[in-house]
Structures are given as structure tokens and as C-alpha cells.
Amino acid sequence: MRGSTSSLPPPSPLASALAAPEEDYRSTARPEASTIAVDPFVDVPPLNTTLAKTFEDKLGALKLIADSVAQQRQFASRILIFHPLNLALFGACLALVARLVLRYQGSGDARWLGADMALVGTTWAGFAMAALLSVRAVTGKYIEEAESIKWDFVGGTPAEHSEGEMGQTASHTRSKSGGGGANARDVLITKFGEEVIGALVLEWMVGEGKGRRKKVGRGSIRAWTVKLRYRGKGVGSALLEEAVGLVEERGGDGIEFNEEHANSKKILWPIYSSPMEKRERNARNLLDDIVGNREASQTKKR
């Protein structure tokens, strides 16, 4: 037994060297699941802006535009309720109501006779309700305006858009609305996953070219809106930039907001229209800034 054992050759150093990596690999502990870095945006849907080419996309854009018109009712209501002139008149009316309900004796001690504050409070509540109903009646025209937004606003009819993928012919459709003849309209949308969160309707003001051929004129924005909870996050600016790029790509003569765009309806009296005019002025200034920045960047590249 001893002779057979001593006759074995010593172990090879190469064998132990080759086995070491395998032993190290097997002994290496895998990191726990909690220590693995996870991308926080892995479940966030993609955000992209493109031309609407399906019935669902154009329907989503149409609903978004109609909602933006209806939402003007809330904005107009706030203007009427919190306007300084209206607040002053409302306060004066409340004081007058209290003066008529309560009988005041003009004696030296200035005592109130027959004071019934419950009656005064009830009268004030009824007066406030009447004021709110008046505001509701005045601003209700925005709902009628929203209901007037039909398929021809985005170009075409539901039958034309329900055929699935519409392609360039259907997305660049003709519209019979407006006073300038039948001009083509494109609908740009921004989608967050499968949800349409922004829409822009671009009408091409087509003119006559040589030989009675139509030529691409100015791009006219007939509607521009973003879903309420996504506003203030750059979605609207991205839509305008995409529209400016589309006009340049097709050789248009420029881009501007149409004077009769979807949100141009003025229902309130001129004394109350300043906040709405400010919003419209800010939108036009934003478009001018985008066009100016784009022209400046192209000049630098040259």
C-alpha cells in the first residue's frame, strides 16, 4: 500500500491553476435583487408627435379640440366672478340687501331694530345663487361652440377616416368650412403611449401659381391645444415646432395663427376680454419665437 502511494506523481501546478477560476466563479455570490440598478423610466410610455393617420387618432384630436373650447367656459366664469368691478358691485348689492331687510333707527345709540341675521344670510345666499346662475347663462355659449366642432374641422367626414390607415391623401384632406375655399388641412398629434394628449390643426392657405396650378401658401393654425393635466410641460411648444418644420419641409410661405381658430370666439364683453387676449397674445409670441430661433439656427449653419 505504501509503495503504490509513493509511486504516484506529485500534482501538477497547471491543474490547480486551471481549476482556480472555476472555483472562484462558483464561489462568487450573485448580487441581491435589491442591489440591481433598475431604469426608472422602463415603464414610461413613449412620447411622440406625428401626423394623424388613423380614424382613432383624428377622433382623439377632435375630442381634444372640442374639450379645449368647452374649458373656456370655466376660464370665462372665473373672469366674471373675480373681476374687481363685479366684486365691487356684488359687495354693494349685498350691503343694499342688508339695508332693505334690516330696519335701522337713526337715533344716537344707533341700535338695530328687528335684526334678523338669519334672514339676511338667506337673502344673501339667494342673491349669490342668482349671480352664479347669471354667470352660467352667459358662459354657456362656449358649450354650444364646442358642440359645433365637427369632422370638417379636421378635414373630411367620419366615413373617410374610418377606413383605417389613411396615408398622405386622407391626412392632407380638403375642408369645405371657412371663407377661403377648400384648403387642405393636416392634423398633428402628440401621443403619450396610446393616449392623444395634444393636437394641432394646420390649414394650408393655397394660392394660384403659374398655369393655374395650385401652390403651397402659408400654414394657418386653426386649432392648438394640449390636454389639461399635461399643460406647462412643453408639449404645446413641441407641437408648434413640429408645425413650423412641416411648413418649411413643404416649402410654405410661413406660418401663423388663423384669426378664426377654434378658441377665438369672444363671448364676454370687451371690458372682460383682456385675460383671453393676453393668452392669445402669448401663443402668437411663442410661435414667433420658435420661428425666429429656427431661422437663427439655420443662418448659423450656413
> Can you give the mean pLDDT?
81
Give unreliable regions as ranges: 1-6, 105-111, 164-171, 174-181, 208-213
Give the SSE order as H and E letters. Answer: HHEHHEEHHHHEEEEHEH
Number of helices: 10
Strand content: 15-25%
Our Rg estimate from Cα atoms comes to 35 Å
Instruction: Give the CA-CA distance, first to last residue.
Output: 93 Å
Description:
The chain has 302 residues and is of the alpha+beta class. It is built from 10 helices and 8 strands. The strands form 2 sheets. Strands 1, 4, 5, 6, 7 and 8 form a 6-stranded mixed β-sheet that branches. The N terminus is likely disordered.
What characteristics describe this protein?
302 residues, alpha+beta, six-stranded mixed sheet, two-stranded antiparallel sheet, 8 strands, 49% helix
